[in-house]
């Protein structure tokens, strides 16, 4: 059971990293370096996949901590 929980923890960790890397940053793109961050496409970002990826990140983080607490409980008992 402990091995299964550890495998689930690794899978969730990889998924969290993947989802976070898929999200666009606050100053996405090289245009932000030169001050071109306020382009026309920047205002449409909220309608894309970023809100969904944000929710998926929160769910994955919650599952990560639940699994971590579960592993700690199994090790202590």
Count up the domains. 1
Model regions low in confidence, pLDDT < 50 over at least 5 residues? none
End-to-end Cα distance? 13 Å
Shape: elongated
Subcellular location: Cell membrane
Keywords: Cell membrane, Membrane, Protein transport, Translocation, Transmembrane, Transmembrane helix, Transport
Family: Belongs to the SecG family.
InterPro entries: SecG (IPR004692)
Question: What would your notes on this structure say?
Answer:
With 77 residues, the chain is mainly alpha-helical. The chain has one domain. The protein is built from two helices and no strands. Helix 1 runs antiparallel to helix 2. It is elongated. The relative contact order is 0.18.
Structure summary:
Keywords: Cell membrane, Membrane, Protein transport, Translocation, Transmembrane, Transmembrane helix, Transport. The protein is mainly α and about 80 residues long. The chain has 2 helices and no strands.
Topology:
Elements: H1 2-22, H2 50-76
List its salient traits.
0% strand, mainly alpha, 77 residues, 62% helix
């Amino acid at each position: 059971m402990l091995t299964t929980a550890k495998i689930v923890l690794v899978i969730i960790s990889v998924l969290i990293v993947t989802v976070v890397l898929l999200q666009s940053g606050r100053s996405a793109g090289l245009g932000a370096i030169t001050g071109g961050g306020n382009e026309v496409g920047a205002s449409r970002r909220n309608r894309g996949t970023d809100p969904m990826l944000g929710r998926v990140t929160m769910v994955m983080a919650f599952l990560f901590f639940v699994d971590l607490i579960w592993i700690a409980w199994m090790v202590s008992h």
